[in-house]
């Protein structure tokens, strides 16, 4: 009721100040005489005042966001850190990696964690062996792979570093320190939320057999990567993936499935006929499809990334 109280407080203050002067009292007498002689305008003024009251009251009753954007960013960052630690622990528990014991080891950044599966694939492709790699986290953006268990390593170490450099791109620096160490350092800009969120979305997409770029585009346009009306949760991605999978099976096309999400309908028969003629719905679906194509072009591809996801499952 804050806005309503302020509005009427100002109204009665102006009224009181007006009645305290002779000119104000004379003015209000003219208004009083006018409304007595013109009941229509009096009723119209009261109706307008009522509408203003209802409008201000409706604004006040609007549900405020559960958290501010800054609070949700903090919560989501905490979720990412927990997710990263869980994924790294999974690699260790499945004997894919062995962490060199060091009580002062820093937390591994997402930029490094997310390339561990790619690194394992390259080691396997070059050496054709499945052996446990010992790693050392030098700092949050640098990891060292110790390949002593692979025996003579000069030629293979050079091949691995070159192949891994090509796969990871220019934002990473891969080097081979003889006789057995491959060093990977991330030297690009810090990842934003959109990039950090890729792996959790990929895993939700893989689990529910939906195309990751489509799920990514839908989440971006659904409530956004960082919604302020709900508490950030990785489970949210899975719930959206489950719903998307169901709708893709029920509707004739991807566009219709997305439109049903826009209209928040549960049954295909409730989808408006020629919904694409409604500009808001058409623009929203087109934006999801545009983002889908963009993520696809970035290489966020189901087949390629599924190889990586298998190491985290």
Throw out a few tags for this protein.
five-stranded mixed sheet, 313 residues, elongated, 62% helix, 14 helices, disordered C terminus, alpha+beta
Summarize the structure in words.
- The longest helix is centred in the first third of the chain and has 25 residues.
- Strand 2 and strand 3 form a beta hairpin.
- Helices cover 62% and strands 9% of the residues.
- The chain has 313 residues and is of the alpha+beta class.
- It is elongated, with a radius of gyration of 31 Å.
- Strands 1-2-3-5-4 form a five-stranded mixed sheet.
- 22% of the residues are buried.
- The C terminus is likely disordered.
- The protein contains 14 helices and five strands.
Biggest sheet character: 5 strands, mixed
Shape: elongated
SSE order, one letter for each helix or strand: HHHHEHHEEHEEHHHHHHH
Kindly state the number of beta strands: 5
Radius of gyration from the alpha-carbon trace, in angstroms: 31 Å
Strand content: 5-15%
Q: Strand order within the widest sheet?
A: 1-2-3-5-4
Rounded to the nearest angstrom, the distance between the terminal CA atoms is 52 Å
Helix content: 55-70%
Alpha plus pi helix count: 14
Question: Based on helices, strands and strand pairing, what is the structural class?
Answer: alpha+beta
Mean pLDDT: 78
Low-confidence segments, given as residue ranges, are 302-312
Task: Please describe the topology of this protein.
Layout: H1 2-19, H2 22-37, H3 39-61, H4 69-93, E1 97-99, H5 110-113, H6 116-127, E2 133-139, E3 142-146, H7 154-168, E4 172-177, E5 181-186, H8 193-196, H9 198-208, H10 212-222, H11 235-250, H12 254-263, H13 279-297, H14 302-310
Parallel strand pairs: 1-2
Antiparallel strand pairs: 2-3, 3-5, 4-5
């Amino acid at each position: 009721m804050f806005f309503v109280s302020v509005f009427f407080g100002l109204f009665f203050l102006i009224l009181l100040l007006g009645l305290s002067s002779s000119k104000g009292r004379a003015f209000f007498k003219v208004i009083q005489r006018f409304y007595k002689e013109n009941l229509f305008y009096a009723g119209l003024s009261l109706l307008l005042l009522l509408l203003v009251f209802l409008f201000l009251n409706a604004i006040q009753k609007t549900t405020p966001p559960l958290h501010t954007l800054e609070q949700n960013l903090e919560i989501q960052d905490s979720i990412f850190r927990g997710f990263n630690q869980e994924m790294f622990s999974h690699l260790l528990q499945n004997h894919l990696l062995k962490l060199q014991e060091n009580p002062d080891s820093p937390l591994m950044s997402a930029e490094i964690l997310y390339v561990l599966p790619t690194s394992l694939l390259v080691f396997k492709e070059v050496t054709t062996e499945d052996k446990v790699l010992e790693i050392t986290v030098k700092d949050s953006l640098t990891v060292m792979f110790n390949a002593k268990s692979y025996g003579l390593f000069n030629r293979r170490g050079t091949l691995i570093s070159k192949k891994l450099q090509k796969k990871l791109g220019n934002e990473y620096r891969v080097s081979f320190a003889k006789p057995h160490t491959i060093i990977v350092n991330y030297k690009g800009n810090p990842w934003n939320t959109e990039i950090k969120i890729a792996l959790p979305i990929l895993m939700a997409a893989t689990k529910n057999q939906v195309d990751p770029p489509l799920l990514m585009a839908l989440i971006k346009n659904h409530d956004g990567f960082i919604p302020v009306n709900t508490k950030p949760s990785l489970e949210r991605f899975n719930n959206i993936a489950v719903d998307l999978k169901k709708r893709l099976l029920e509707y004739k096309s991807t566009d219709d499935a997305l439109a049903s999400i826009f209209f928040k309908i549960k049954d295909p028969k409730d989808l408006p006929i020629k919904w694409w003629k409604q500009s808001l719905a058409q623009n929203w679906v087109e934006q999801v499809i545009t983002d889908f194509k963009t993520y696809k072009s970035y290489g966020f591809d189901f087949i390629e990334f599924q190889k990586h996801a298998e190491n985290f499952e």
